[in-house]
Design a protein that fits this description.
heterodimer, A: mainly alpha, 4 helices, B: mainly alpha, 77% helix, 0% strand
Chain lengths: 117, 179
């Protein structure tokens, strides 16, 4: 069964969709950001799994090893992890400001206050 | 053997994500996210991405968790029970997932050494970086030299985000001092 070789993508999609569900179904802004981070970590796994080679080793060159996994996705994801934490920090700072301005971080409370203006 | 380890780790990731969905105490959700990041780092080790694994373990498990805990310390840790039914989000998520699964049907198989991703610049990096850059860790070589502009762009993003955080939280503090 050749399609079974795609199992890594399918599990990653399952994890991604759980993160996506947290983003759209929960009302608390911090929980939304956590959902976004779950989604993001799943995307990292997707990229890394694409760079894997059967029987490969970590891409650190040494004698006696001939097959390495692809270093390019690793580099891209290293960058993405650090950028991800920077954007998360910015999002959390926005949440703190929203709490200051509205007195709540629940999506429905914020919408209600905006309607009353 | 590696496949078994990977599948078990994937299962634990799924359980952690479900727990994060079902919990309503934000402290517990942040801890679940931290465990999720640590498990993701273990998956990266199983997939031979050691550099990514220790970055994820340091940044995802460490810094992100601390930032989130600091935030829930300021905004409160309890989520209100949702008033709307979960049907619509569930339908959106299922539909998106099915479209994505349809998109994977043309992807190369997991671990296939003939996949297009392994034919482009990766052989060049693996064969020539010891001569051109001279360090055994190819990931570091690519990060700092071949794709150095990428890393510079990353620094720009972090700098901008840092300015943004300072602007958002610094103004707040000044207003409080005046009042």
């Amino acid at each position: 069964m050749d399609l079974l070789g795609l199992y890594n993508y399918w599990i990653v999609i399952l994890l991604m969709m759980m993160g996506f569900y947290v983003v759209i179904a929960s009302g608390h802004l911090v929980k939304k950001l956590i959902g976004l981070n779950l989604f993001q970590a799943s995307v990292f796994i997707l990229y890394i799994s694409m760079g894997t080679v059967d029987g490969g080793a970590a891409p650190i060159l040494r004698s006696g090893v001939g097959v390495f996994s692809n270093p390019l996705p690793h580099v891209l994801i290293l960058t993405a992890i650090v950028v991800g934490v920077a954007t998360t920090a910015l999002g959390l700072a926005l949440v703190v400001r929203i709490k200051e301005a509205y007195g709540s971080v629940e999506e429905e409370d914020i919408h209600r206050q905006d309607d009353s203006l | 053997m590696i496949e078994v380890v990977t599948v078990i780790l994937f299962g634990m990731l799924a359980v952690t994500a479900i727990a994060a969905i079902r919990l309503h105490d934000l402290f517990a959700v942040v801890m679940m996210f931290s465990i999720y990041s640590l498990l993701a780092a273990a998956v990266f080790v199983a997939m031979d991405a050691v550099d990514v694994a220790f970055t994820e373990a340091a940044v995802g498990v460490g810094i992100s968790t601390v930032l989130m805990l600091a935030t829930i310390g300021l905004v409160g840790r309890h989520e209100k029970r949702p008033t709307h039914r979960p049907g619509l989000p569930l339908a959106v998520v299922t539909l998106t997932g099915m479209v994505l699964v349809y998109g994977t049907l043309d992807m190369p198989r997991f671990g296939d050494p003939l996949a297009p991703i392994h034919q482009h610049v990766a052989p060049h990096y693996l064969q020539d970086s010891p001569v051109e850059i001279g360090i055994p860790n190819v990931v570091t070589g690519v990060l700092a030299s071949y794709r150095g502009y990428d890393t510079l762009g990353e620094l720009t993003v972090i700098f901008t985000a840092g300015i943004g955080v300072l602007a958002l939280l610094g103004i707040r503090r000044r207003k409080r001092d005046e009042s």
